[in-house]
Amino acid sequence: MTVRTLRDLPRVERTLRALPRVERRPRLRPFGGSGRVRGVSGSGRVAGRSAAGRRGRVVVVLSLSAVVLATADLRGHASVLRTAGAAVAGPAEQVLAAVTAPARALSGDDQVRVQELERHNARLAAELWAERAARAREAGRDRLQAAHPRMTLVPADVVAVRGDVVTISAGTRDGVRPDLAVVTADGLVGRVVEAGPDVATVLLLTAPHASVGVRTAGPNEIGTVTGRRGDGLLSLRLLDADAPLRPGQQVVTLGSSGGSPYPPGIPVGTVERVDPVRDQLTRTALVRPAVTFSTLDVLGVITDAD
């Protein structure tokens, strides 16, 4: 009997069920003194037992054969399924392989080349940024000199900010010394309080203990401007309590003896609010600085003024 496909299994099962059933005989107990059993041959085995064993082995062999052939048949079907799946998924796999081929091919020397290009681009970007910064500094220095044409200036960059002081990139080797005024193209920044060979420290005009003599444009009323904290404004105090003062008036440096630290005529700020209450000796107001202290960049140290 041959099993070729799974469809043959029912026929095999029916054949197996048709085989005669081997009944299990009860085990005979010995009696008498001879030690022999009725119906037992001289070898001591039950008559017919060999035939039953042979039939049992036939059943086992047929069952194993059916299982093996069925498994082979299943494997054959599995290969058919795999073939069909490959036919369906093959084109999609080919498209995916074509799309990902450049990425998979990017290896070895190609990856090294890409890394070199990335480093080269980074260097170019850094060089471009440095070039733009240099041009901006040069333009700032040109504006600085144009705003103060009668003054000798040492240009410097702000390299550090610490509260009410800044560090600039110019020192004694450049002719910078303490008690020199520092300006931008817009107006007064402060004065040098300490100088080293290559850097100097500048006290900003906004510091509470900074003070500079000023005058108002027009009536030329004299007073002082001091720094204050909080709103970025400066305090103006005129010596004449009856001096005319209104918002929008310009305030400039009065000028120090010998021109140091502050030469005359440097813009300080604009009157923003006048105190309506007058005391007996002075008149006060708040001044908006001419310089934006939060964006300091290129500064100039005035070493000489005509």
UniProtKB/TrEMBL annotation:
Organism: [Actinomadura] parvosata subsp. kistnae
Sorted UniProt keywords: Cell shape
InterPro entries according to UniProt: Cell/Rod_1 (IPR042177), Cell/Rod_MreC_2 (IPR042175), MreC (IPR007221), MreC_beta-barrel_core (IPR055342)
Gene3D superfamilies tied to this protein: Rod shape-determining protein MreC, domain 1, Rod shape-determining protein MreC, domain 2
Name this protein carries in UniProt: Cell shape-determining protein MreC
Similarity section: Belongs to the MreC family.
KW NAD (keyword) present: no
All residue ranges annotated as the Rod shape-determining protein MreC beta-barrel core domain in the record: 165-302
PANTHER family xrefs: CELL SHAPE-DETERMINING PROTEIN MREC (PTHR34138)
One record GO biological process: regulation of cell shape
A single Gene Ontology CC term: plasma membrane
Pfam families: MreC
